[in-house]
Amino acid sequence: MLCLLNSASPVRPAYRATALQLADALHQRNLGLIYDGSHDSLGALVAEHLLAMGGQVLALLGSSQAQPSPSAGLSSERCTDRQQRKARLLQLADAFIALPGGNRGLQEVIEVWAWAKLGQHHKPLGLLDGNGFYSQLGGFSRSAASARQSGEAPALLQIDSDAELLLGRLQEACSALPDCSPALHRARTMVQHPLH
């Protein structure tokens, strides 16, 4: 499973295009989506587009969140609080991915990255860099990677502006990690959405 972290409103055409590109790439690779069940976010746009193409979507809902409208291919799971949702994300996700836009999405990227640094998981994190949103973070990541000692595991942070290439790089990174499922290695996973 892959966890989609961004929940920005899909107002910028470039960000909308990036979200639709991700949905198309997920469909091409026969991957599903897990997202937060929101109705007005880039994650919702990805979910709707993927469902329209016959894909599989899991909505990971908060305790007071409205149930999404029934749709073929859509299932849901309710979490009682943020801690339970975090635990489910770490349990269900084989990798994480973030779309561009929004402070909340950036906060989640840093949180997931910190979890990896703290040893809570060893799962790759992909940033889909639409319109150069993550270019500064990419520079920081490359600088940090150059300071790694030899023999260390490959960098868990992957950045690309092409959804298809990014998913391929996440699968490649995941194949070398012990806690990624064989399903992601075969390109038949599901993706998830925000932590809140």
Descriptive overview:
The longest helix has 16 residues, at 13-28. The protein is globular, with a radius of gyration of 15 Å. The model is unreliable at 149-154 and 185-196 (pLDDT under 50). Helices cover 42% and strands 15% of the residues. The protein has one domain: Rossmann fold. The two termini are 18 Å apart. Strands 1-5-6-7 form a 4-stranded parallel sheet, sandwiched between helices. With 196 residues, the protein is an alpha/beta fold. The chain has helices spanning 13-28, 42-52, 82-92, 103-117, 135-146, 163-175, 182-185; strands at 2-4, 33-35, 57-61, 74-78, 95-98, 125-128, 157-160, 191-192.
Structural topology:
Elements: E1 2-4, H1 13-28, E2 33-35, H2 42-52, E3 57-61, E4 74-78, H3 82-92, E5 95-98, H4 103-117, E6 125-128, H5 135-146, E7 157-160, H6 163-175, H7 182-185, E8 191-192
Helix pairs in contact: 1-2
